[in-house]
Amino acid sequence: MELIFAASACDPESQIICTPDSVNELFELPFVYGINRTMILNIVAALVVVWFFWAAFRKRSLIPGKFQTLAESVLGFVRDEIAIGIIGPKHGLTYFPYLASIFFFLLVGNMMEVFPLTLFPITSRIGLPIALALFTWFLFIFAGVRAQGFVGYFGHLVWPPTVPTALKPLVGLIELVSVILVRPFSLAVRLFANLAAGHVMLALMLLSSWVFLSSLPTGNIAGLWGFLWAGLGLFIFVFEILVATLQAYIFTLLSAVYIQTSVEVEAH
To answer: Do the Cβ atoms of 215 and 227 come closer than 8 Å?
Structure first.
């Protein structure tokens, strides 16, 4: 079989697939200290979102063009179905800018997995999902304190009014741990795990197909397996477009749900 060179040095006698000594070599930029490819792609994703809305709305018209129509449609969906639909008309518009920003940023960042020039979703490294989950965590805590007051918000958590008195201590403890620890952790891990798993599967399928197909010129009949792996890789490629969109939507939806449970006393 041909060799796959992912490192500067390789021992062809013992390695079929050559890998770098450290995985960081795949992300670090030469001659740029402290900045790696993931950081650059984060900035690119943010700039793409800014450019998209600038291009869509810089010349607004009563009869919108295709670009403006697309932007207004997606914004309208986030506003009506997520912000107002989940949080409610009273508070939904207040938090709509954050929800729209997080949705579009995640959508672009996730789609980088299938974009030919990147082929790497920025959310497949745990740092970004943790940061975004902490933003949401801080926002729904702030929203709860703002709407109910510090004592009112945390009082409803540790002493739920709708729960029988005998169960209040246990339920209150569970609710407090859920809000403070479980929610940000689950938000981050759900996003990271789905994008990382899909990225690894896609890489394995395409890499396997290349390895097998490259052996066909040598007369190795086993190389025909490469067509199967290529087909599976193409299927996962298309499937990951759906996953990327769905995970951006789920993260935004859960952010809205958490904000809603913070601003509405009855939710506890």
So the answer is: no
